[in-house]
Design a protein that fits this description.
The protein contains 19 helices and ten strands. The protein has about 500 residues and is α/β, with parallel strands linked by helices. The longest helix is centred in the middle third of the chain and has 36 residues, at about 270-305.
Length: about 500
């Protein structure tokens, strides 16, 4: 297979995280030298190396959780100024909490204060220089686009939407009819695909993006073969979209792509590692959060009549139904009149206590029991009710592919796209779910958990549902749901 399927590591994240690591190291060393003198400072760094490394790791984790490597910090001035300030402040507080709990200070206060100031200034400088480098095209890969006018325009607009990704489109190479006007989205049309090798050499091309519909054309593959063997990266539209948007475009995939993606999620070692992490974190979470869990149950019972825990059927791995556990956050009989409907944080059926629990995700603590039972995972596509799965499977292609893995308490779709109040929104979230299924790994799970933690710390409730949207269910299903709604708000 000529086309690359894996996701290339983001240039933005690699450059910024590497620069931040260097900045943190330099800041602590320089602070020690300035504070103590050159020789004494170096000796201090050596004797406190473990604490300094730990502090650096804390800062990097906090940077990730606070969104220091997200696109908006480079494109929006308010995030550029505010996010590093918040991240460094939080990092200092965590370092103090981690290493200043003893009577003897692990790291000198003066050194920590001076290093923190340098880290803050350095983080601003690093991101400013990165924006400058992107603007001047210093971190770009010369790229050609192969396709007709509409296909090439889609690829070019996708790249335009992600300027920090490092792709610099040098020209369009057409297959079939020549695009009108000599330009596509202000990019020059160079010539036919038969001359592709010449254009690759002339423009020192590192990446060629081919329209999805052309990747199986024999003539195109014949032309691409020597280019691929020469070390040029070949991507189709799906792979490019996957890398830049971190989702899978449903309109451009087929059964062959799905079979390839399913192979990753079925690998035994991935499932085993995931299961070990699930059990360990779920057990630890239940123990640590037990006081919070007990308090939440008491508040629910005091604030409104009805059971504190409710049970609801959801669809899990391989389409098997199971009973999902949650702390009740709505009034009893919430769906008696409406049947199954999506809701959001402004729904009038949510109680005052329930609103607080939802904001901080405390209502989902019982799902750790589902994780221990093997019905759910910490990370995965969010489980839907059987009625919704039936409707969405008919309306959205490949919807049931999300049942290839265990559903999760949180997921890639949840940390990227908050609301699913319509079929079109559910379709968009499926694109994120397919990205997760294809790229499922221990590191991706850790990244999702960290981003979920950021959501919780920020006090932002990502909703599973959207206000005022009721799916058209069969009458029999609506009636049966209404009868049982008293236990399942």
């Amino acid at each position: 297979m000529f086309f690359e399927r894996g996701v290339r590591v983001s240039v933005r994240r690699v450059v910024l995280s590497s620069a931040d690591s260097a900045t943190i190291i330099a800041a602590f060393v320089l602070a020690a030298v300035i504070r103590l003198s050159a020789d004494a400072g170096i000796a201090y760094v050596k004797s406190h190396l473990g604490y300094l490394v730990g502090s650096g790791i804390i800062f990097l984790l906090v940077f990730y959780i606070c969104g220091m490597y997200e696109r908006q910090i480079l494109t929006q001035h308010r995030y550029f100024v505010r996010t590093p300030l918040v991240a460094v402040t939080l990092g200092v507080l965590l370092v103090v909490a981690a290493f200043y709990g003893q009577f003897k200070l692990a790291i000198g206060r003066g050194i920590l204060a001076m290093a923190s100031g340098m880290i803050l200034l350095g983080s601003w400088a690093v991101r400013g220089l990165f924006r400058l480098a992107v603007g001047y095209g210093w971190l770009t890969r010369n790229t050609l686009v192969v396709g007709d006018q509409a296909q090439a325009a889609s690829v070019i607009n996708l790249i335009y939407a992600h300027p920090d990704a490092g792709y610099q489109v040098r020209g369009v190479v057409y297959c079939g009819q020549r695009p009108e006007g000599g330009f596509v989205e202000q990019i020059p049309v160079l010539g036919p695909v038969s001359d592709l090798k010449k254009f690759v050499n002339v423009y020192d091309v590192e990446t060629v993006v081919v329209a999805t519909s052309l990747r199986k054309e024999r003539e195109v593959l014949r032309i691409l073969r020597p280019i691929r063997y020469a070390g040029v990266q070949l991507l189709d539209y799906v792979a490019l979209h996957e890398e830049l948007a971190q989702e899978i475009p449903l309109d451009h995939i087929d059964d062959e792509w799905l079979m390839s993606a399913a192979m990753n999620s079925s690998r035994i070692h991935i499932r085993q590692i995931k299961r070990v992490m699930d059990v360990f974190v779920a057990l630890t979470g239940l123990i640590v959060l037990s006081p919070v869990f007990l308090l939440a149950l008491i508040l629910v019972k005091i604030s409104s009549p009805g059971p504190a825990i409710y049970r609801q059927k959801r669809v899990g791995l391989d389409g098997r139904e199971y009973v999902l556990l949650k702390i009740r956050t709505m009034v009893p009989s919430a769906e008696r009149d409406t049947g199954p409907v999506w809701c959001n944080s402004h729904d009038r059926r949510i109680t005052a206590v329930g609103r607080f629990l939802r904001k901080w995700r405390m209502d989902e603590i019982p799902q750790l029991v589902n994780v221990l039972r093997g019905e759910m995972s910490l990370v995965g596509p969010r489980p839907e009710r059987p009625e919704f799965v039936e409707i969405l499977s008919e309306a959205i292609p490949f919807y049931r592919e999300r049942l290839l893995v265990r559903p999760g308490i949180t997921g890639w779709a949840q940390v990227n796209y908050p609301y699913t109040g319509s079929i079109s929104a559910a379709r968009r979230k499926l694109q994120f779910d397919l990205f997760y299924i294809k790229n499922m790994s221990f590191l991706l799970d850790v990244a999702i958990l960290l981003r979920t933690f950021r959501t919780i710390v920020a006090g932002l409730r990502y909703a599973e549902e959207h206000p005022g949207t009721t799916l058209e269910l069969p009458v029999q299903a609506r009636n049966s749901e209404a009868e049982a709604a008293g236990n399942r708000p």
